[in-house]
Amino acid sequence: xxxxxxxxxxxxxxxxxxxxxxxxxxxxxxxxxxxxxxxxxxxxxxxxxxxxxxxxxxxxxxxxxxxxxxxxxxxxxxxxxxxxxxxxxxxxxxxxxxxxxxxxxxxxxxxxxxxxxxxxxxxxxxxxxxxxxxxxxxxxxxxxxxxxxxxxxxxxxxxxxxxxxxxxxxxxxxxxxxxxxxxxxxxxxxxxxxxxxxxxxxxxxxxxxxxxxxxxxxxxxxxxxxxxxxxxxxxxxxxxxxxxxxxxxxxxxxxxxxxxxxxxxxxxxxxxxx
Length: 274
Known about the structure:
Among the domains are: 3-119, no CATH class; 220-274, no CATH class. Helix 3 crosses helix 4 and helix 3 crosses helix 6. The protein has 12 helices and 6 strands. Strand 4 (133-136) and strand 5 (142-145) form a beta hairpin. The strands form 2 sheets. It has a 4-stranded antiparallel sheet with strand order 3-4-5-6. It is an alpha+beta fold. The protein is globular.
């Protein structure tokens, strides 16, 4: 186990509330960048907050505070969504996002929420379907889309939902509930996993699933995905363990029948290597 993985595992064993999302996100990046100075990047977040503290403190209303923070991060500092190369893995690494001032919705949201937290503003991540957001927990409640650098309305959220799932999709306020630290980290790793699967980089995809399972040890579909990755990497005994566990946890899952069909051959392959 790498040092970054060991530190990540120790950090996420804590109850949800004390988990430092920024530190955990940097430890995710630490597997790609073994010599990453995590403390230095946490200080970068401190410096961003220090750069706007006076302007935020000098206004009283929440909307004005958020407007000043938005001006600072999105205009003066130039943080913006990476439309040009959305699936670049660097968009999922917090150090790269801080260096390059660009990323995907969830990593830009982490930057926004972490700077806001250092300013004493109650801003939480929101795991909205298809596009991570943040919101200032009011009153008034203010929803911000860090990818596009703007405040959005409830109507905007409803339109986005319907654009994904059709006009019959029903908007529910629970879609805007604050995400837990574990949910944020799982979503970051899931995005990165998908990028690596598209690139057919099985070892890096496997590393993402391993860390998701540190956060959610009995997530059936992650066990299934890891089992399939182990199969592709010809680690047959490990594949069998994960796929058998998957079937125990989710015997009626839509992928369960396909796993049942492939499992006997994997068991034979594993037995040959014992």
